[in-house]
From TrEMBL:
Belongs to the MptA/B family. The keyword Transferase applies. Its main location: membrane. The keyword Transmembrane helix applies. It is found in: Membrane. This is Alpha-(1->6)-mannopyranosyltransferase A.
Amino acid sequence: MAARSSTRLTLRVPQPLTLGIVAATILALASFSGGASRNRGGVLEALNIGFLSYGHGRNIGMVLYWIGLFGLVAAWVLAGRHVIAPQLKEPTPEGGLREIQRMLLCWIAPLLAAAPLASRDVYSYLMQGAMVRDGFDPYTEGAAVNPGPFLLEVSHDWRNTTTPYGPLHLWMGNAVTHLVGDHVAAGIIVYKAISVLGFAAIAWSIPRLARSIGGDPSLALWLGVANPVMILHLIGGMHNESVMVGLVSVGLLAAVHHRFHASLLLVGVAVSLKATAVIAAPFIVWLMVHRWAPDGTRMVKRVGIFLMAGVLAVAEVAVAVAVITWASGSSWGWLSQISGNSKVINPLAGPTLLADVLVPLIQFFSPDTTYNDVLGVLRSAGMVLMLLGLVLVWWWGRTGVRRAIAGTAAAYQVAFVFNSVTLPWYYASVLTLMGTFRPPLSIIKLTTGAALFIGVAFAGDGNHQLYNWFWVIGMIVVAWTATQWIFAGVPSSATASTKKPTPARAE
């Protein structure tokens, strides 16, 4: 009697490199119809296929956006499973680094040709640059004072809003619009190049920072740079966080190698772009103290070094900001705008999340209470808690190099939790550092899950899904499941360390 034959259906898991390239290519193609596409003109109209930017054509583009985004997320998850998890189980110096570098390079390459994704902010950057070019002050006037091609692309929410960014941001915008005139597409190309340069600075410095303090450079690159939040919002969205975080990352690397003047000046330049960069400066003070007054130094000398380092940090950051303000011909009006714009409402900011939970309960007992009343109180309380949290985290980071870098990441996280306004790309400041300082496995998992959740929170046109509770619950489940799968079999005692920390003294 013949043996019964059987067929087995096997599913072949794609390679993360290939999957990421395909997904990024789909995202790039979808960006022109399902992304933050032009209101007037653009590539599709130039090719006489403008019908793809509205109606059913746009719906197809938005579907392709989600396919591409989830494909990119899946590629990142697979890279974590096949490259990072084995490295955590059996750490080797430089293990997996070249693989992650190759993947990152290939994943971002298709997006170099993409239109803006998940945000219309780049159009505002161009508009603000054109305002300066044409003699208007973006710190006191909204974009609507200067009609033209750029204004047509600015989101209606921001047409009468001043800018919270610093003089370097306006100086860059002024230079870009002088270069491209009123040509929107050319302006986007220039800002894409600027964003890529900032991203390259991050990708170059973060593995080196990890290596210098005994961390794992491959984990640092995968977790902090190659994740979907960074790729989507810094390369796809072209946010100025790319340059700001790049400057801070290089500055922290310089500080770890005891080049403190260069470090503080780089942070000062970053502050002149966006004020949140200043959060790194107090931790550089601890690095100076740790270098010049190590453990065992007499208390009097240690206090003197601390005071000198503090004065030096304030002076050099202030000088950098002042020089750029003077050279750019800008004003100090941005200091009154740095709290951000209260129009943005989403639960990534702690006060907003708490208001979303509390307001229905309060209104049950007090129907006349409005959402804005409660949110205003919570935002004020959040500012106080932020300041307290920043001080506590700063004090916690005083005991060593790794602790100072970890404290910097924690300080940014405190700022974004209690801030009145928080958006996904803000987390670039946190994510870049999370893999550098030998974090425990629980922190690696938490960061991975957060990056997965935040990475899929925004649609291609910039609208978020954070009030779609079916989506939120579903993505929390997906993020948790994917994180558990990535690190399955990794012992809880594993830390992201290598055997060769150089050259900075750790703890």
